[in-house]
């Protein structure tokens, strides 16, 4: 067992518990309380005066699926704009994820997606950011279906003179696939259709539909197109969000903001943070991610995005929720990760101060499933 002793615990749900202990038993949190009594053989980590966060969750990224060479590029299946049957688990490379070492900036889990340039790109999964094997790192697969109607989608297929060359073409393919899946569900004599089969959990609202939209007009078009269809929409990227977003859908949606830290981006310049705060006040779930123009951003990017949100007026504890409990909820893994609570994975990060409020904060320890990765002997050995 490990006892993290006397820290200021921010649980990821808006609560702060000062001078509080956390007892870790194996891979999970066993107890959170002041002055926990333990046996003599318990390892003690003295954290008095330190800031303790749940491990950050990057809601949307492609770490582990894309590299510099052809042999490393397993992200986008561009043989067809509609590929819902693709499963990102089979593209994930633990070495590529480990190379990023994002846990050095407190990121302990990530929502990994297939292509965000297909109309329907496939099924996303949640992985830990540290491990020796994809299935050791896997938290949950098939957590969302990934879709896109952005300019990137038009660029890929328009250059081939095939649909979709326009936004209306992309939405036509998206609606067509969903309606076909609904008809497939009703057909007692149906032939095997892997595309329609892959969409069944989407139309049953068991898993969300992540739709990559960069502009307000793209988001408005999706609202209009899907308002009467049985899907739970999560807008990703969502740089065109404002306080009126979701009026047509009657606020039955969530948002994963894309990368705000890329100063060279043409799409993230006009984010309406007052609108974001307005939506959050209405109870809309808003998370932060590093998805954007760059295929996979650096290990510090998620924290930079969190700092920017705080800089533009979102309260620090609300920002913390945007990188912990809210992404866990959107990704359907809140029973395992996203907050410091008894029974959840011991994904815990210890800082010298609050990194959302001050640049002087430094990371001291990153625990993933109860193992202090920054000082792990296993981390410094060959793969085993």
Automatic annotation (TrEMBL):
Gene Ontology molecular-function annotations: hydrolase activity, acting on carbon-nitrogen (but not peptide) bonds
Residue ranges occupied by any Amidohydrolase-related domain in the UniProt entry: 272-371
Origin superkingdom: Bacteria
Pfam families: Amidohydro_1
Protein's UniProt name: Amidohydrolase-related domain-containing protein
Organism: [Clostridium] ultunense Esp
């Amino acid at each position: 067992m490990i006892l993290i002793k006397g820290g200021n615990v921010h649980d990821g749900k808006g609560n702060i518990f000062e001078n509080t202990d956390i007892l870790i038993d194996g891979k999970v949190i066993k107890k959170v309380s002041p002055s926990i009594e333990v046996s003599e053989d318990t390892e003690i980590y003295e954290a008095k005066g330190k800031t303790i966060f749940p491990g950050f969750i990057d809601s949307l990224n492609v770490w582990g699926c894309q590299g510099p060479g052809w042999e490393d590029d397993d992200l986008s299946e561009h043989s067809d704009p509609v590929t819902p049957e693709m499963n990102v688990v089979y593209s994930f490379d633990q070495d590529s994820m480990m190379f990023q070492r994002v846990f050095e900036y407190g990121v302990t889990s990530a929502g990994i997606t297939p292509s965000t340039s297909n109309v329907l790109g496939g099924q996303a999964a949640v992985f830990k950011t540290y491990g020796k094997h994809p299935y050791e790192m896997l938290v949950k697969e098939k957590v969302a279906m990934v879709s896109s109607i952005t300019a990137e989608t038009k660029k890929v297929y328009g250059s081939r003179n095939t649909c979709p060359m326009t936004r209306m073409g992309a939405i036509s393919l998206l609606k067509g696939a969903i309606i076909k899946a609904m008809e497939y569900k009703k057909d007692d004599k149906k032939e095997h259709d892997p595309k329609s089969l892959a969409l069944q959990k989407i139309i049953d609202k068991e898993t969300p539909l992540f739709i990559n939209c960069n502009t307000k007009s793209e988001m408005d078009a999706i609202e209009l197109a899907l308002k009467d269809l049985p899907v739970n929409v999560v807008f990703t990227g969502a740089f065109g969000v404002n306080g009126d977003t979701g009026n047509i859908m009657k606020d039955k949606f969530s948002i994963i903001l894309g990368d705000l830290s890329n100063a060279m981006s043409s799409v993230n310049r006009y984010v309406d943070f007052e609108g974001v705060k307005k939506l959050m006040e209405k109870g809309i779930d808003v998370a932060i991610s590093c998805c954007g123009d760059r295929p996979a951003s650096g290990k510090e990017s998620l924290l930079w995005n969190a700092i920017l949100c705080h800089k533009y007026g979102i309260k620090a504890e609300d920002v913390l929720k945007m990188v912990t409990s809210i992404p866990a909820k959107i990704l359907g893994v809140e029973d395992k990760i996203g907050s410091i609570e008894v029974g959840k994975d011991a994904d815990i990060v210890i800082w010298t101060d609050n990194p959302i409020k001050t640049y002087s904060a430094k990371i001291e320890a990153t625990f993933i499933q109860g193992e202090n990765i920054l000082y792990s002997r296993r981390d410094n050995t060959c793969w085993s």
